[in-house]
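Quiz preparation item.
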């Protein structure tokens, strides 16, 4: 793939990243400790808990994607027709791609029962955010690479995921790699922030939710992330 320490361009130190063409995701590998005398090797970047992405800890999170059986949510007094739906059906509604996070949070504000469903949905979202590259082809590539790994070259997986600009004298594999670096979305390392922002944007007082209860809901959203990390 990439010569370990050979600067074929002569312009800059080699950059390393994890690419997942099928889901168009990238995680740039950076050392948390500056190495002024030399360039960090892939081993130092991947298998070191002081670096931005410790492979052992992160790849192990793929187990979080296994769907686990859920216990029925207890009914509170007389449930509405929506609340009376089976847990699996409500989960399917919340997973509708047309719903924004603010829509899901707003639904959860309607009742304590629906809020419990929303918390379960948010926890699952945290699982997915923790392991967006699980179950798909990934490769560690360097910016000096001369060819693509076999899994990326097969069926033109990497090439079909990006648009190549024919303006460079670089080999095709390097063009694909650089195009992917610029086009892929970075792995979201703080999945809780968008959900907390969606809750903050809601007018909980108008919805009839006391301030103390609204604060508790913020804590519960954050706790869902911790639960997802433990299950990972």
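Solution:
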């Amino acid at each position: 793939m990439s010569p370990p320490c050979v600067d074929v361009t002569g312009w800059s130190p080699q950059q390393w990243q994890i690419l997942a063409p099928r889901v168009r995701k990238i995680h740039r590998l950076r050392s948390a400790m500056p190495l002024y005398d030399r360039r960090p090797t892939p081993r130092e970047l991947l298998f070191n808990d002081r670096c931005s992405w410790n492979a052992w800890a992160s790849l192990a999170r793929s187990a979080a994607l296994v769907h686990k059986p859920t216990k029925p949510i207890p009914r509170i007094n007389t449930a509405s027709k929506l609340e009376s739906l089976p847990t699996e059906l409500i989960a399917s509604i919340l997973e509708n791609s047309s719903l924004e996070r603010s829509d899901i949070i707003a639904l959860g504000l309607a009742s304590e029962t629906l809020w419990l469903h929303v918390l379960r949905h948010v926890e699952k979202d945290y699982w997915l955010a923790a392991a967006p590259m699980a179950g798909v082809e990934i490769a560690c590539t360097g910016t000096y690479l001369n060819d693509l790994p076999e899994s990326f070259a097969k069926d033109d997986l990497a090439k079909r995921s990006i648009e190549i600009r024919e303006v460079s004298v670089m080999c095709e594999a390097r063009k694909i790699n650089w195009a992917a670096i610029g086009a892929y979305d970075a792995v979201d390392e703080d999945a809780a922030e968008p959900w907390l922002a969606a809750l903050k944007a809601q007018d909980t007082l108008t919805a009839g939710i006391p301030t103390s209860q609204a604060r508790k809901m913020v804590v519960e959203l954050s706790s869902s992330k911790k639960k997802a990390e433990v299950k990972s």
